[in-house]
Amino acid sequence: MKIEKLHIYGFGKHENLEVNVHDGINVFYGENEAGKSTIQQFILHILFGFPQRNSQLLRYEPRSNATYGGKIQILMDDGSRVFIERVKGKASGDVTLYFEDGTRGGEKELAAILNAYSRADYEAIFSFSLLQLQGFEKMTEEELTRTLLSSGTTGMDTLSSVEMQFAKEMGELYKPTGRKPLINQKMEEIRQLETAWKAEMDQVEKYEPSIQRLNEIESILKESVEREKELGDQLQDYSHWKQLKPLKIAENELLEKVDKLPSHSFPPEGLRRYEAIKDKQTNTQIAVEQLKQELQSMVHSSEAIAPETLEEIQDFLSQESQWHQLRAKRVQLEEEHSKILQQQMQELSLVGIDWESSLNDIVAADVSIQQEDRLVTMLNQQEQLNQQFQQEERLLNLKMQDVEQLEKRLRESKRSHNSSKGQSNTKGILFSLVGFVMMIGLIFSFLASNWLIALLTVIISAGIYGGFTLLIKGLQKENEAHQYTDLLEEELRSLKDQIVHLEGVVSEVEHQKKECKHKIYAFLRNYQIDEELSPSLLPKLFNRLRLIQNQQIQLDQMEGKLEEVSRNLRGLERRAQSFVKSQLVDDLLFHQLREIYLKEKKKLEEEQTTLSKITKLQEKLNELDLLLNAQEQQITMLFKEAGVSTESDFYQAHVVSQARAALEKELEHVRMQLGDRKINLHDFEETFEVTARETLEAMKEKSQTLLEEKATLLYETSRLLENEEQSQKLQQLEEKKSELYELVKKWAAYKTVTEAIKQTVLQLKEERLPDVLEKAKSYFRVLTNESYELLEFTQEGLFEAVKPSGERFRIAELSQATKEQAYIALRFALAVSLKNRVAFPIILDDPFVHFDRNRLKQVVQLMKELQNEHQLLYFTCHEHMRLSWNEAHIIDVATLQVGSGGVLR
Question: Which of 76, 128, 233, 753 to pair with 853, CA 20 to 30 A apart?
Answer without folding.
Answer: 128
